[in-house]
Every structure is written in structure tokens, then in C-alpha cells.
């Protein structure tokens, strides 16, 4: 079996590398745009207007309460049909991943902001700063220390979740596995290699996140 695994790795390493690149691109784009959208949703949920809070809360609950695979199916099949237009499969997949991630990122940002001592806000307001100035100059700079490690962990989670993209042959690692498995009529050997790649990438990133968290704790 080991000889077969080495043979598969030698013959198909360009496909594995291409799949890893696509997986990392999907993950990076998802976290980047998901963070932007999640921040907007977070501030809507914290708004003083009840309607905005209701809409943002409903959005988060729906996203977090439904499977990612279901959302992928909706954006891949349902959205183009609803809009009556063709949408490139990569765009549909990326939209689903971003929407899904934004629901979780919104809660990450909200918890990071709420973790800042309320006395900081009261002190800023007593000095004459309005709500926006207090948020931008006092609360957010302190909240970033709470938010960044969680966002990094979200990136690690998204890398693993992109395996569902293979359902639509989106070019990710698991898609390449299906291609190689079909070409060789092998199941276990290519799967072992893909699992090793996922493990090395996520384990390395997890350790980097843990190191970053320790540095933040030491700086406090």
C-alpha cells in the first residue's frame, strides 16, 4: 500500500498541488470577504433600530442553522434560476462560502467587541466622544486582539469546509481526489494523500494561530 501511495503522489503531485492552491484561494477569499460582510452584519445586529437588529439576527440564525452543503446547493442551482441568468460555478460556490462564513464572523466580531470592558466606553463618552468615535478609537482597537485569533481559526475551519466544494467539482483538493480515484480505480491511496495534505496545512496554521495567541497574551 505504501508503494502505491508513493506512486500516486509521484504521478499526480501537480493535480494535488493545483487542488491545494484552489482550496487555499477559496478559503482566503471566503475569510476576506466574509469578514467584511460579517462586520456589516455585526454592526446591524448591534444597531439601535429594532428592524435592523431583527434582520441581522434572522440572517445569522438562518446561516448558522442550515448546513453549508444546503447553502451550496441553493447558490449553485437555486440562485441562477431565481435570477434567470447564468452564474459561473466558481462564483456561485464562492458566494455560498462567503455568506456562510459571514454568519459566523459576525458573531466573532460581536463577541470581541462585547468583551471590551464597558468602562472603556463610559470613560470615552465622559470625555466627549460620540458613539462612532468611541467605537473606532477606543473599542475596536482593543477588540481586535480578541477578534484576530478567532478569525485565524475561522480560516482553518473554512479550509476543511471547502471539501464540500467537491460536490460540484470546483477544482479543490477533494475534487482532484475524485479525478485521480476515477482514473486509477483506487479509493484509499489518493484519499490518504489528500488527508495528509489537509492535516499538514491545518495543523501548521493551527500552531501559528496558537503562537500568535500566546504573543498577544504576553503583550497584555
Walk me through the structure.
With 220 residues, this protein is mainly α. It has a single domain, classed as MetI-like fold (Orthogonal Bundle), CATH 1.10.3720. It has eight helices and no strands. Helix 1 packs antiparallel against helix 2, helix 1 packs across helix 8 and helix 7 packs antiparallel against helix 8.
For the structure shown, list the relevant keywords.
single chain; 220 residues; mainly alpha; MetI-like fold; 0% strand
Task: Give a brief rundown of this model.
This protein is mostly helical and 220 residues long. The protein has helices at residues 2-45, 50-65, 68-83, 89-114, 118-126, 131-161, 173-184, 188-219.
Q: How many β-strand stretches? A: 0
Unreliable spans: none
Briefly, what CATH class? Mainly Alpha
Distance between the termini: 50 Å
Order of SSEs: HHHHHHHH
Q: Describe the biggest sheet?
A: none
Q: Considering DSSP H and I runs of 4 or more, what fraction of the residues is helical? A: over 70%
Note the total helix count: 8
Q: Estimate nothing, just give the exact number of structural domains.
A: 1
State which percent range the strand residues make up. under 5%
Task: Average the pLDDT over all residues and give the rounded result.
Answer: 87
**What is the gyration radius calculated from CA atoms?**
21 Å
Can you say what the CATH homologous superfamily is?
MetI-like
CATH fold type: MetI-like fold
Q: Any idea what the shape is?
A: flat
Structural class: mainly alpha
By CATH, the architecture is named Orthogonal Bundle
Amino acid at each position: 500500500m505504501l508503494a502505491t501511495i508513493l506512486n500516486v503522489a509521484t504521478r499526480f503531485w501537480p493535480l494535488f498541488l493545483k487542488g491545494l492552491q484552489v482550496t487555499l484561494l477559496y478559503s482566503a477569499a471566503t475569510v476576506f470577504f466574509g469578514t467584511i460582510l460579517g462586520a456589516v452584519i455585526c454592526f446591524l445586529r448591534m444597531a439601535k433600530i429594532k428592524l435592523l437588529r431583527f434582520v441581522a439576527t434572522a440572517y445569522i440564525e438562518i446561516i448558522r442553522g442550515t448546513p453549508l452543503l444546503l447553502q451550496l446547493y441553493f447558490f449553485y442551482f437555486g440562485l441562477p434560476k431565481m435570477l434567470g441568468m447564468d452564474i459561473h460555478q466558481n462564483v456561485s460556490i464562492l458566494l455560498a462560502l462567503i455568506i456562510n462564513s459571514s454568519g459566523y464572523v459576525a458573531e466573532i466580531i460581536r463577541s470581541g467587541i462585547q468583551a471590551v470592558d464597558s468602562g472603556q466606553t463610559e470613560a470615552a463618552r465622559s470625555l466627549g466622544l460620540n458613539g462612532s468615535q468611541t467605537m473606532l478609537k477606543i473599542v475596536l482597537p482593543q477588540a481586535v486582539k480578541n477578534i484576530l485569533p478567532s478569525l485565524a481559526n475561522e480560516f482553518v475551519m473554512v479550509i476543511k469546509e471547502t471539501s464540500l466544494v467537491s460536490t460540484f467539482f470546483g477544482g479543490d483538493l477533494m475534487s482532484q481526489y475524485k479525478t485521480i480515484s476515477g482514473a486509477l480505480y483506487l479509493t484509499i491511496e489518493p484519499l490518504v494523500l489528500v488527508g495528509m495534505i489537509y492535516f499538514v496545512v491545518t495543523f501548521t496554521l493551527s500552531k501559528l494561530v496558537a503562537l500568535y495567541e500566546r504573543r498577544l497574551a504576553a503583550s497584555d
